[in-house]
Structure formats: structure tokens, C-alpha cells
Amino acid sequence: MKILLFDMDGVLLESRGYHMALQETVRYMAQALGFEDQTLTPDDIATFEAGGITKEWDEAVISTALLLEAAWKVDPTRLLPETSIKTTTHSSKIHFYPDFNLLARQLSSSDLHHIPPLERADLHFKKKNHFNKRQHQILHTLITEAHDPERSLPHRTFQELVLGSIEFKRTYGLPAVLAIESYLLKHDVSNLSEIDSARLRAWMSLPKHAATVITSRPSCSPAGVFSTPEAELGAELVGLKDIPIVGWGGITWLARKRHVDQQVLVKPSPVHALAALRVSLGDMQENALTEAANLVESGRGDSAWQQLAGAQVSMFEDTPGGIKSLQGAQEVLGKLGIRISTRYFGIAKKQVKRNALLACNAQIFPSLAIALNQSI
User: How does pLDDT run across 264-303, given as a tens digit for each residue?
Assistant: First the structure.
């Protein structure tokens, strides 16, 4: 059997919408704290991603924590507004800028790669001794509530930018403040031409050929879990609207079922790649996720795993997370006596990301189209 596993952002499509929403979110947070025009650069984002900090929600909150630290050097009482980015003004402007790239490098050291990104950030700021007790608590709360739209101003702002004000209000039931169109619909660009999409669909239709998206994007989830269909929007954009997806929605469902944090199940966890492999075999999302978690937890699996024996699996990624997830999955399957062969296609132009992918034994390609020519 031949299986292709695709990351979405940076691989199937250029996630300009996410990156622009991230930059705009950080700009809004900086303005709310009294900075002059300030946000992340593309190199800052690439450095975060190369270090395994790939969720824009996390990058936005981590960057906001650094902005708070810098703002407190000017005014130790300065805080973010609680509800709306448009409710706070400061008489004194801050003219210096914190070093986002330095923070990204500090949080990306190899000894931290096994720790989820938000935990890395929490540990980083806890170690600093120039904060008072209240400031430590503010930063801890900001980081630990990073994914709560009702309590996290960076998250709420980012989601309104991503979905657009109308869809944000409908989806979350929260007031919209930006009156803005969806950044995903407006700015994302497919990395597949119509010809490439058609060729990939034809390849997928052949016997014993399968492809699945493995992404941290919010995605449709099993019943009972709230998630937004951002991965499905991306798949439609690239001409693969029927491709199976194992995304954040499914991971959230599994995390709640297991009473654990999503971060321990999403890539680079082997659970994510194993679930994608099961979906590639034709499993429903719920069963694929459950069996993947069972296998990692107990080392024992059902008979369906044997269908992967001898499979050739190709992973297309722009960051190490998915590659490490598949490497872990290969190791877990090997302990069952199931051998799969793997190839890793790194899609990257920026050197910091190329270096991170090379460290994971990936072949590097400047575009998905060129990588596909080597694989199908």
C-alpha cells in the first residue's frame, strides 16, 4: 500500500491568512499596550515554526507575553484590556521593541522539544526573577488560557481575523469588534495547480493508494466537541475537498475522551500520525483516533494494523512536528512486528526551516509540486 500524508499550512497551501492574522493580532496587542507599530516578521514566524511552535494561537500569546514584559519596564501596572482591543489608550508610547526572534530561539532549544510550546513559554517566564508575584500570575494566566476565546484576548482577536467578523460572531456567539473579512478566504493561496490537484486525485483513486491531511488546523470533529472547519476550507481551496483530515477537532475530541491536554496527542506525538494512517486505511475518525491512542498507551493493537505491513508512507511537511510523529509511529508499529517504509519530503525555502527539516532526515524541496514529482 502507498500512503501520502500532507501537512496543510506551508505545504498544501501558503497560509498567508494565518500568518497575516498572527501578525495583525500581535500588532493589535502591541498597540493595546502602548507600543508604536510593532509585530512579528516572517523570519520570527519561521524561527518559531522551526522550533516546533507551529500554532499561530500559541505564537500570538507567547509574543503577547513578551510585549507585556517589555511594557512593564516602562509602566509596571500596564495591562491588556479585558474585552476589546479598542478600549485602551496610553498617554505615553513605548519606542523600543522586544526581540521576538530571540525568544523564538530560546524556546526552540533541543532540550525543550519534548515539552509542548505553551508549557515551554510558561517555564521560560517563570524563571525570570524581575517580575512581582502579580505579574507572574498575569503571565501564567495569559499562557494557560491561550486557547479560551472567552478569556484570551489574543485568541479572540486572532479567530475573528481568521474567520471574519460575521462568521466569528455566528460561530462563537461573542461580539465582533473588527468588522473584517476572513483572512483565510482573502489571503490563502493553493500550492497545487489545477493540473497537480487533478493528478493527485487520479493517483488517490488507484487501488491501494491513499492520502490524508495531518494538520493542527481546527477541523470538523466528532459530535460533542466544538471546532471550526478551517482545515476543510483549506482542502477545498487546494482542490482536495474529499481528502480525509485528521486535525485539531479530532485531537480535541480524543483529548477530552482521554482526559488529557491536546498537546500530548497532536504531532509530534505518534498518536497523530498513527490516526492518519488508520484513516488512510478507511477508518472513521473516531475509531482511528481511539485505536491510535490505545496502541501508543498499551503497545497492543487490533488486527487492522496488520494492513499497514509493507506500506510505503511519504510525509510532506514544512516543520519537524509531522516528521517526528511519523517516526514515532513507525517505531510503535515496529514493536508489533509491522514494518513500514517512510520517506520525508521537507517543503521549505527559509534556511532556518530547511535546517530543522534536514535534522529530521528529510529531503528538502522548494515547492510541493517538485516534491510530488518525486513521489507519485
Answer: 999 999 999 999 999 999 999 999 999 999 999 999 999 9
Do the strands 189-190 and 2-6 form a parallel or antiparallel pair, or are they unpaired?
unpaired
| CATH among 3.30.300.30, 3.40.50.1000, 3.40.50.150, 3.30.200.20 for 2-11+189-373 | 3.40.50.1000
In three-state secondary structure terms, 172 is helix
Instruction: Report DSSP letters for 11-47, one per residue.
Output: TTEE-HHHHHHHHHHHHHHHHHHTBSS----HHHHHH
Beta carbons of 275 and 246 less than 8 angstroms apart: yes
Judged against a pLDDT cut of 70, whether residue 79 lies above it is answered with: yes
From the list 325, 271, 276, the residue with the least C-alpha distance to 294 is 271
**Share of the chain residues as helix, strand and coil, in percent rounded to the nearest 5:** 50, 10, 40
Amino acid in the structure at residue 158:
F
- Residue 268, preceding bond cis, omega within 30 degrees? yes
CA pair distance 263, 285, nearest whole angstrom: 18
Would you list the domain boundaries of the chain? 2-11+189-373, 15-184
Q: What angle do CA 63, 65, 67 make, to 5 degrees?
A: 70
Q: Which of 140, 161, 123, 120 is nearest to 68 (CA)?
A: 140
Residue range 322-344, pLDDT digits in tens = 999 999 999 999 999 999 999 99
With beta carbons less than 8 A apart as the criterion, state whether 216 and 267 touch. Answer: yes
CA 301 to mean position of chain CA atoms = 28
Assessment of whether the complete model's pTM goes beyond 0.85: no
